[in-house]
Amino acid sequence: MAGTGKAHMRGEEALVTVEDLVMEFPAGRRAVVHAVSGISFDILEGETLGLVGESGCGKSTTGRAMMQLPSPTAGSVRFDGVEMTELPKEDLRRTRTRMQMIFQDPISSLNPRRKVKDIVAEGLSIWHNDTGEQSAQKVNEVLDAVGLDPEVVSDRRPHQFSGGQCQRICIARALVLDPKVIICDEPVSALDVSVQAQILNLLEEMKERYGLTLVFIAHDLAVVKNVSDRVVVMYLGKVCEVAGPDTLYAHPAHPYTDVLLASIPEPDPDHPVSDRQIEGELPSPINPPSGCRFRTRCEKVQDLCSEEEPVLREIAADHYVACHFPNEVPVSVNGDGA
Amino acid sequence: MAAEQPLLEVENLRTYFDTPRGILKAVDGVSFTLDKGETIGIVGESGSGKSVLVRSIMNILTSNAIIPDGSEVYFDGKDTRNLSRSEAKHFWGTQMAMIFQDPMTSLNPVKKVGVQITESIRYHLGASKQEAMGRALELMVQVGIPEPRKRLKEYPHQLSGGMRQRVTIAIALACNPKLLIADEPTTALDVTVQKQILDLLASLQEELGMAMILITHDLGVVAGRARRIGVMYAGKMVETADTTTLFHHMNHPYTEALFKSIPRVEHQSHTRLDAISGRPPDMVLDLVGCRFAPRCRYAQQQCLTDEPDLFDTGQTGHRQACFYPVGSAENAEALAANQATGITAAGLDLTAAAVS
After folding, report:
1. What is the model's pLDDT at position B355?
2. Does any CB of chain B come closer than 8 Å to the CB of residue A204?
3. Nearest to A277 among B160, B195, B277 (CB)
4. ipTM of the complex in this document
């Protein structure tokens, strides 16, 4: 369970590069919450990176740290050649327009007292000296793109919409400034399955249409598999495994990935409910276990796991794992679904 | 089992709410039975009326609820609707208990866990404080809470989401109810914790022999857990069957659509999902015809004017309410006809890249 280790990094060509990101929060009485402890990953332009893990694994914190909300305790976030952590405040604001975020609860992330058109136009009114007409046109365009009829919705307020529609408004708001990267923090976990499918399809369409690069944070592996080009599995502030979605799901190498996969409820009565279950509770991030952080709940645990922290290493083509005793995976892996 | 009287009989249950906008028909004629020790899963989208259905069964509706005559709920042969408030107080907990979606809001934040578990034991069973604490400790062990003695003295905010849900389960089980109603018990939880909680419920059910109603919007959750499944849409039951039959012979287009919208791990990444376009109808309106017709790929003229009733499909226990059931010749014809014109009788555009 290392975050140390950068075997999976792809160097210069990446659009966003996160290196040795550390995020710590004071927890009183000199205690420190180790939310994210030195993780690294990179995202190529046009790629969707999935960040998966349980609550408390630091995936949302990572997403926010990329936006400098707040700035990480240590480490670097490079976006399009610019080091975000060192930018002066004004430049940071300017750079951040090209990196937008969508949150889990769409209803509470919209101001209930404002009209939809004002919510969506806010970014424009802050940044541009567009005439009212130009910005109204842009707002209509993005509303239309996310599948809402501008004529109908513009003058309504968020409470008049369902959760799925509110999420569409949030997506429109994120799109209005023509961002390069959108960080989606559990965008569908508050939605019904049927609406979830609509939003996932919409994100894929928007990615295509606007040439976006996405970071998709979620705890549901089936959802992440559906949208991602590359998946990073996190546990307690560290990276466990990095691979393409189809490889990861066909040949999980890390015991934690294994358990996560076994937990997905299969909509198939003939598929026996797996008897694998993750034991116990997530350890406290104030005092994380030594060595491999997953060792307290791992069924393969050995002495080595508590003594030495495993480092991410390549076990097959574009498949990286941070575990001393990973599952066997076939070395020649077919390329991930094109 | 068939000869025995079912534990719960719901007959043409209707629950309406008097709202400023008009009468909202949240549940509109639902019937089903549940045997002792059986699990039924009730599946549907938000707003399909599944939560109101179980609240009606338990008789814990808000004061603006109207239950028209003809709606009947028999539990163990008794009509629950005629219970007085004081009778109901002894009925809840000992006969029927419920766990809710959000464990944080269903626990009292300013009372210790132990006090919350022992409350019903002392009230219903008249146990002394000490006896009740002993029982609470047993329950905590039973629901798999580590360090139960210490946890009894803690407050809900000191526990994780999964632990809190375990506590609400312990509270629900405290007086050995005959029926446990779980209203989206895992929706607020992580996948791994969801599995723990579902496994726990299954094992407890077997151990204690209680019946269970498991409500969820995820067909995946009920597939491995319930013996029978009822699919609800807009206040109506549209299809009921035992679990295997339902998954192998889905008859109702809504069931099929729900199933297809689930992202599956077996599928290649970037597989386009078959989302259900549109949204459920406004239940304040007078709805004519099949309620799913506006979102249905197979909708024909008949669907807009006639309301289909639940009828037997010929397979035992499998009932569905569609004129053009999936898998039938009529269904194939209906789809072909709609595809030829590119639009269904209800005006749903089949050619559009269904964004909305």
Report:
1. 39
2. yes
3. B195
4. 0.83
